[in-house]
């Protein structure tokens, strides 16, 4: 009882010392020896030992002493746990000796109990002598055990205690600490910082004192240097009261157990795991079948079907699909309609509803989860019928709703403001890729008349619930999320929104996608463990909704993408909800238009700061303007070229130690929120985070205020943990135009005098150039502006990436910009990007630059393999349009300049590719005859102008592509309207300039009245044209029209071909005869050469003999 009591008290402790835990392990080992009593037969209780005592007489006093030892040990542990960290360090050796003494005591108690029990065990009294022989070995092992425990105690010293022990040693040790109150209080403050907030028991022991500032030096000295024995004796009264309360509680619990013991015995005879089942119907089935903790899913569903058939059986007509033995009277039971859906045909979905982990077995936990999740007013048959048929109908319905939302999003995109289009494009590109993997699988299912109206109440309630708690059913969840995002897009028609509105929506969809991916991975592992083919299982599991998440190759194949025809629903404001308020769904602010940041040059927005007379130091010292840079880890200014100098204007807020700030740089205007606190030596610690408009990821700063340098110095990173920082950061009050030439942190640390001298020279020279309006000053500003804007656009958004030299230029220009200039240039970049179609992740296959503006896609270049769709794309640079592409080995052949091209001036999403491909192919078939007319018309002026002066005629060059050509030839425009005759008026003309057409020209695939645009007008950009069939806009894609190929020459006759072949054979024969003659001549030469070698050999032999003699 004593051990159970003190062990229960220790479990309730919030902060357990590792040394105490080790001591309790030793205590438990001592108690384990009592398990030998299980081997003592009942008749041995009265066996008399040689000394005249039985086992009860011998063990009773020993157990009582052991109980007292346990109480004393627990009291010592309780006292030690309440001690302050400083006391544990100073008195550490004494406390270790105190605790280790109990290790020795418990080991000896264990030996004594083992000896006493060995006399009465089933091994017999005669074996007690053998036990006595082992006592000497145990004594030696005890010494070894003590050495091990001492080593363990040394290893269990916490890092905080080690650190504080080093502080004590550095400050003179324990002796100096006894006589130095100031040092004692200082070390206690350090210990409090290391240990953090005190635990609940130490707080009560100190009478509610939570800080060391309330302790005087005398009290602290007594607590720190108090001997362990005295401290344990003082704590014993409090401990014994706690011990007694806990002992009574355990006794009460045991009494309750004894009182109910007989009832439990009876329940155990009749009971089992099924007692945990909540639903009474399931409980009855489980009991009758004698199932234990789980049952095969198939057996359970079949048994459940038979159970309900027997329950509702009557003389009514037999339900279709059921056995004619059992019938259901639907007129007398409201759930009769649901019973017919619990049959063998729907066995799989019912099993999956119960078997959540797809293991093939249904556990009691899974059963309770299923029955508890049903709607309150639904019966169990109704709930099972929903999963048998209603769930299938519901996911088909939701999949159709989701695809309809995609169609409406594509329709509303045409009406949103230009700055918002890129956000919608990013959303559709990412979200459709995730969501369509689900909806594509569901829409392949054939809808059935499954009485969906009977389940509509649950679906409506589920939507309402998910509207406040988005965490469960995937299809309603996705539908509600996307419906919310669509309302945001509606607001984009009239307001410019913060990009984070859409980015957070993308992030929420990605969380759902990650959850689905984890589920699919788990199912794949389960199927593999069951030795099943995951590919086949995913085709059927949950109606196959996860099959494309498991293997998406079939979904994004060339055939699927080319044949997938999506719909677009034009936006109609009259059919939308008029009660949606922007403030109810938006997290961030809005603007009416994307304006350039001229405000940075008005002199008031960037320089005027109130005095804040009521603010006291040190916060008052922090307020105002600060200017700084991002630095790398070695102190060099950040050289990626994406960040410039920034300006912060710190202002106070309601919190005493909180502040906010307006900031600006090339990232635009953004906000900062942070706080300050006093650290060691009264150093002002500063922490804040910067939230940017175009990013959902904030940047964190962690540093301090240096009053000597008048600077904020610290580190920056993407998390609040300074250990995960990316580099250094420093802010100063130096004016921005001077800070641009101020030395970096590394330069100051390497050679401060030299770097400051260079700074002074550069600052003075810049002031002189600026004050005198020097041309070099203004030309450099102009060049920096052009370099920064153009190369930033190329490096981040559109065009070919800058080379190394250009990259160094943009980095140097960025470092020379003040925050005002950088903010204004950044707004120009954003303005240009907003009015340019940025085709993300689409690169020109000729110049390899990112495509912005118009994009050309080849219809004739197809991949060899059809696993994933990947088009050949070109930008509109003349050299790229007429280029021949051969490096794409994944294509069936080289891209030729005369291939069919489609031009997109707006971003084409993945869901639009199939529709666009079909429309473009149909347009090429329609325009074929019209192109022949244009070619005929282009040749007529040449005949009419024969003999005229070349200066007054307009010749047309035939530009029909030839296989050996690698580029198309440029052609001149056909004659103007003045040279047209009346018979020419039926020929197509340019829909913009109304002039005659020549090749190449462009044809609209949407306009039904055959709209052509000449190449010159198309190069000027897209324009809205009013046509008889409607308005032509930039969303109407164009195809390139080339001159029709010339008819091929008449084939030569067979006799002529045979004659040509005979001539070639005769030529080959003559060449072969000539070769034979040359070969014979060569053989003769080899024979002659061999004879000469023989003569030379003979002469050498003679020469050797002559020399030898």
Question: How is this structure best described in words?
Answer:
This protein is of the alpha+beta class. The protein has 38 helices and 22 strands. The chain has an eight-stranded antiparallel β-barrel with strand order 5-6-7-8-9-10-11-12. Strands 16-15-17-22-18-19 form a six-stranded antiparallel sheet. Strand 13 and strand 14 form a beta hairpin. Helix 32 crosses helix 33. The relative contact order is 0.04. Residues 11-16, 122-132, 197-215, 315-332, 465-472 and 942-983 have low confidence and may be disordered.
Task: Give a quick precis of the structure.
Helices cover 52% and strands 10% of the residues. By secondary structure, it is of the alpha+beta class. Mean pLDDT is 78; it is low at 11-16, 122-132, 197-215, 315-332, 465-472 and 942-983.
Query: How do the strands of the widest beta sheet line up side by side?
Result: 5-6-7-8-9-10-11-12
DSSP strand (E) fraction? Answer: 5-15%
Radius of gyration: 45 Å
- Write down the overall mean pLDDT: 78
Number of strands: 22
Share of helix, binned? 40-55%
Main sheet summary: 8 strands, antiparallel, barrel
- Which regions contain 5 or more consecutive residues with pLDDT less than 50? 11-16, 122-132, 197-215, 315-332, 465-472, 942-983
C-alpha termini separation = 125 Å
Structural class: alpha+beta
Number of helices: 38
List keywords for this structure.
1109 residues; alpha+beta; eight-stranded antiparallel barrel; 38 helices; 52% helix; 10% strand
Write the layout of secondary structure elements.
Layout: H1 2-11, H2 18-32, H3 55-82, H4 85-90, H5 92-118, H6 128-155, H7 159-170, H8 173-179, H9 181-195, H10 200-205, H11 217-225, H12 228-259, H13 261-270, H14 280-289, E1 294-296, H15 297-311, H16 336-339, H17 347-354, E2 361-363, H18 364-372, H19 380-413, H20 418-442, H21 456-466, H22 474-491, E3 496-497, H23 499-529, H24 534-540, H25 547-550, H26 558-563, H27 582-585, E4 590-591, H28 619-622, E5 624-630, E6 646-652, E7 658-665, E8 668-678, E9 684-691, E10 699-706, E11 711-717, E12 727-732, H29 736-739, H30 745-750, H31 752-771, H32 775-796, H33 804-816, H34 819-834, E13 838-843, E14 850-852, E15 855-858, E16 873-874, H35 878-881, E17 901-904, H36 910-944, E18 1001-1004, E19 1012-1014, H37 1015-1019, E20 1025-1027, E21 1030-1032, E22 1038-1041, H38 1054-1108
Antiparallel strand pairs: 1-2, 3-4, 5-6, 5-12, 6-7, 7-8, 8-9, 9-10, 10-11, 11-12, 13-14, 15-16, 15-17, 17-22, 18-19, 18-22, 20-21
């Amino acid at each position: 009882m004593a051990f159970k009591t003190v062990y229960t008290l220790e479990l309730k402790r919030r902060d357990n010392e590792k040394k105490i835990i080790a001591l309790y392990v030793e205590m438990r080992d001592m108690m384990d020896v009592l398990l030998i009593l299980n081997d003592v037969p009942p008749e041995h209780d009265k066996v008399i030992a040689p000394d005249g005592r039985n086992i009860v007489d011998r063990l009773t006093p020993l157990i009582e002493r052991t109980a007292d030892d346990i109480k004393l040990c627990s009291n010592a542990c309780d006292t030690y746990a309440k001690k302050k960290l400083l006391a544990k360090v100073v008195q550490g050796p004494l406390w270790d000796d105190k605790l280790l003494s109990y290790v020795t005591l418990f080991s000896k108690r264990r030996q004594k109990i083992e000896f006493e029990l060995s006399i009465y065990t089933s091994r017999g009294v005669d074996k007690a002598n053998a036990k006595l022989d082992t006592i000497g070995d145990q004594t030696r092992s005890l010494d070894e055990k003590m050495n091990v425990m001492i080593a363990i105690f040394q290893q269990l010293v916490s890092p905080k205690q080690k650190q504080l022990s080093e502080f004590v040693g550095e400050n003179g040790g324990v002796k100096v600490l006894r006589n130095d109150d100031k040092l004692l209080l200082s070390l206690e403050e350090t210990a409090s910082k290391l240990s953090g907030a005190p635990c609940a028991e130490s707080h009560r022991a100190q009478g509610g004192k939570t800080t060391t500032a309330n302790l005087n030096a005398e009290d602290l000295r007594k607590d720190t240097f108090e001997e362990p024995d005295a401290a344990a004796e003082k704590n014993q009264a409090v401990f014994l009261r706690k011990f007694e309360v806990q002992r009574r509680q355990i006794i009460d619990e045991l009494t309750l157990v004894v009182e109910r013991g007989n009832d439990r015995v009876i329940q155990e005879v009749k009971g089992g795991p099924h007692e945990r089942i909540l639903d009474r119907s399931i409980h009855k089935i489980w009991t009758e079948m004698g199932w234990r903790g789980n049952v095969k899913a198939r057996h359970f569903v079949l048994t459940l079907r038979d159970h309900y058939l027997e329950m509702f059986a009557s003389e009514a007509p037999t339900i279709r699909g059921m056995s004619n033995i059992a019938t259901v009277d639907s007129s007398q039971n409201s759930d009769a309609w649901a019973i017919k859906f619990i049959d063998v045909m729907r066995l799989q979905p019912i099993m999956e509803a119960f078997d959540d982990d797809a293991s093939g077995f249904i556990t009691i936990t899974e059963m309770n989860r299923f029955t508890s999740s049903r709607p309150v007013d639904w019966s169990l048959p109704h709930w099972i019928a929903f999963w048998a048929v209603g769930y299938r109908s519901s996911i088909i319905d939701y999949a159709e709703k989701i695809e309809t939302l995609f169609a409406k999003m594509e329709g509303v995109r045409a009406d949103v403001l230009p700055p918002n289009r890129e956000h919608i494009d990013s959303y559709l590109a990412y979200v459709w890729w995730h969501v369509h993997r689900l909806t594509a699988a569901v829409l392949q299912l054939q809808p059935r008349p499954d009485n969906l109206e009977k389940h509509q109440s649950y679906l409506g309630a589920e939507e309402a619930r998910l509207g406040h708690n988005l965490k469960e059913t995937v299809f309603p969840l996705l539908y509600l999320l996307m419906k919310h995002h669509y309302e945001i897009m509606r607001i984009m028609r009239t307001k410019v929104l913060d990009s984070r509105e859409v980015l957070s929506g993308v992030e929420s969809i990605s969380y759902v996608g990650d959850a689905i991916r984890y589920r699919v991975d788990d199912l794949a592992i389960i199927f593999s463990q069951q030795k099943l083919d995951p590919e086949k299982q995913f085709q059927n599991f949950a109606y196959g909704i996860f099959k494309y998440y498991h293997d998406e190759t079939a979904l994004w194949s060339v055939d699927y993408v080319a044949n997938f025809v999506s719909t677009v629903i034009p936006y109609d404001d009259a059919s939308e909800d008029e009660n949606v308020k922007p403030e109810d769904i938006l997290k961030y602010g809005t603007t009416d238009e994307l304006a350039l940041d001229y405000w940075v040059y008005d002199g008031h927005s960037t320089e005027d700061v109130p005095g804040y007379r009521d603010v006291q130091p040190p916060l008052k010292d922090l307020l105002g303007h600060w200017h700084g840079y991002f630095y790398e880890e070695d102190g060099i200014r950040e050289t990626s070229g994406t960040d410039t100098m920034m300006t912060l204007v710190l202002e106070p807020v309601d919190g005493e130690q909180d502040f906010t700030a307006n900031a600006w740089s090339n990232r635009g205007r953004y906000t900062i929120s942070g706080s300050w606190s006093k650290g060691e030596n009264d150093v002002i610690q500063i922490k804040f985070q910067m939230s940017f408009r175009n990013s959902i990821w904030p940047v964190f700063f962690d540093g301090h205020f240096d009053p000597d340098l008048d600077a904020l110095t610290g580190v920056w990173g993407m998390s609040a943990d300074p250990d995960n920082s990316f580099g250094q950061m420093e802010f100063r009050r130096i004016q921005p135009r001077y800070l641009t030439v101020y030395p970096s942190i590394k330069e100051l640390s390497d050679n401060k005098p030299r770097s400051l001298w260079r700074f002074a020279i550069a600052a003075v020279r810049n002031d002189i150039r600026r004050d005198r309006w020097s041309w070099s000053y203004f030309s450099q500003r102009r060049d920096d502006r052009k370099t920064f804007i153009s190369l930033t656009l190329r490096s981040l958004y559109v065009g070919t990436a800058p080379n190394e030299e250009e990259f160094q230029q943009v980095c140097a220009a960025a470092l020379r910009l003040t925050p005002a200039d950088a903010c204004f240039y950044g707004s120009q970049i954003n303005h240009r990007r907003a009015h340019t179609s940025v085709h993300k992740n689409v690169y020109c296959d000729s110049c390899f630059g990112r495509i912005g503006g118009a994009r050309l896609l080849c219809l004739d270049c197809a991949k060899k393999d059809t696993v994933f769709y990947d088009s050949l794309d070109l930008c509109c640079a003349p050299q790229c349009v007429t280029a021949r592409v051969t490096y794409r080995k994944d294509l069936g052949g080289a891209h030729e300049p005369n291939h069919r091209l489609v031009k997109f001036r707006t971003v084409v999403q993945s869901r639009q590719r199939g529709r666009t491909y079909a429309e473009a192919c149909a347009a090429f078939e329609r325009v074929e005859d019209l192109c022949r007319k244009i070619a005929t018309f282009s040749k007529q002026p040449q005949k009419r102008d024969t003999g005229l002066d070349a200066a007054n005629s307009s010749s047309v060059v035939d530009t029909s592509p030839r296989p050996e050509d690698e580029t198309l030839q440029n052609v001149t425009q056909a004659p103007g309207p003045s040279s047209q005759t009346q018979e020419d008026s039926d020929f197509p003309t340019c829909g913009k300039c109304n002039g005659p057409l020549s090749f190449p020209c462009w044809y609209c695939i949407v306009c039904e009245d055959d709209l052509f645009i000449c190449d010159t007008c198309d190069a000027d950009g897209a324009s809205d044209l009013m046509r008889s069939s409607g308005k032509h806009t930039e969303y109407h894609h164009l195809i390139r029209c080339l001159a029709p190929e010339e008819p091929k020459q008449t084939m030569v006759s067979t006799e002529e071909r045979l004659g040509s072949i005979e001539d070639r054979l005769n030529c080959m024969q003559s060449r072969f005869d000539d070769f034979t003659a040359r070969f014979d001549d060569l053989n003769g030469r080899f024979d002659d050469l061999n004879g000469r070698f023989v003569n030379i050999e003979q002469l050498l032999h003679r020469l050797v003999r002559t020399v030898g003699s």
